[in-house]
């Protein structure tokens, strides 16, 4: 299902007029794709700043970085296509990240598992993932496509007191 991932990046010319800087598939420099992984990760854009500075053109291509589930700071947008079992997909490990995530189901069906329950999500479903322990599983027969917007976050002292220690985070 990799067809159809298109990134359009805008910017400004020397006179301050809005222009298209790029239009096409974003560069991908990581091994997170294929049946061995059970999913295809499409890195769209990231920035290490909490409040990004808008410039005429970006200083660098944001995908020219080592792959991590979540960079140590900032924001990250990625599209993940989670394969069905017959194409190598399997349930992810239960994991927690120190992020606030907005996850939008674009196509297919995916199961979100938490410590005490699970729910089935379809197109148009939006998850607000708040640092909880969770896993994803495609139990269907076609690829599920989801958009993940990860934002660096911090656990409150109140929440840290309730979480298992040492706190293990996926990075």
SSE blueprint and pairings:
Elements (H helix, E strand, L loop, with lengths): L6 E6 L5 E7 L14 E9 L27 E8 L16 E9 L2 E5 L3 E4 L4 E5 L3 E4 L6 E9 L4 H4 L11
Antiparallel strand pairs: 1-2, 3-4, 4-10, 5-8, 5-10, 6-7, 6-9
Brief summary of the model shown:
By secondary structure, this protein is mainly beta.
What does this structure look like?
The chain is mostly beta strands and 171 residues long. The protein has a domain at 37-155: Jelly Rolls (Sandwich). 2% of the residues lie in helices and 39% in strands. The chain is built from 1 helix and 10 strands. The chain has one helix at residues 157-160; strands at residues 7-12, 18-24, 39-47, 75-82, 99-107, 110-114, 118-121, 126-130, 134-137, 144-152. A 5-stranded antiparallel sheet has the order 3-4-10-5-8, with no helix packed on it. Strand 1 (7-12) and strand 2 (18-24) form a beta hairpin. The relative contact order is 0.19.
Taken in chain order, the helices and strands follow as EEEEEEEEEEH
- Kindly, what is the distance between the CA atoms of the first and last residues, rounded to a whole number of angstroms? 26 Å
Number of helices: 1
Specify Rg, calculated over alpha carbons: 17 Å
Strand order of the largest sheet: 3-4-10-5-8
- CATH architectural designation of one domain: Sandwich
* pLDDT averaged residue by residue: 91
**Main sheet record:** 5 strands, antiparallel
Overall body shape: globular
- The total beta strand count reads 10
What's the helical proportion of residues?
under 10%
The fraction of residues assigned to DSSP E strands is 35-45%
Top CATH class of one domain: Mainly Beta
């Amino acid at each position: 299902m990799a067809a159809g991932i298109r990134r359009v990046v805008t910017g400004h010319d020397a006179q301050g007029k809005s222009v298209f800087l790029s239009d096409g598939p974003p560069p991908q420099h990581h091994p997170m794709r294929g049946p061995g992984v059970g999913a295809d990760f499409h890195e769209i854009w990231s920035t290490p700043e909490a409040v990004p500075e808008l410039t005429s053109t970006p200083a660098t291509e944001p995908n020219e970085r080592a792959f991590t589930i979540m960079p140590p700071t900032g924001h990250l947008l990625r599209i993940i296509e989670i394969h069905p079992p017959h194409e190598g997909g399997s349930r992810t490990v239960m994991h927690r990240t120190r992020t606030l995530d907005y996850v939008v189901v674009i196509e297919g069906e995916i199961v979100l598992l938490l410590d005490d329950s699970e729910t089935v999500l379809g197109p148009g479903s939006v998850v607000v993932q708040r640092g909880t322990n969770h896993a994803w599983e495609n139990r269907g027969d076609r690829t599920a496509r989801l958009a993940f917007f990860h934002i660096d976050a911090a656990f409150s002292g109140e929440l840290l007191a309730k979480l298992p220690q040492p706190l293990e985070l996926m990075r």
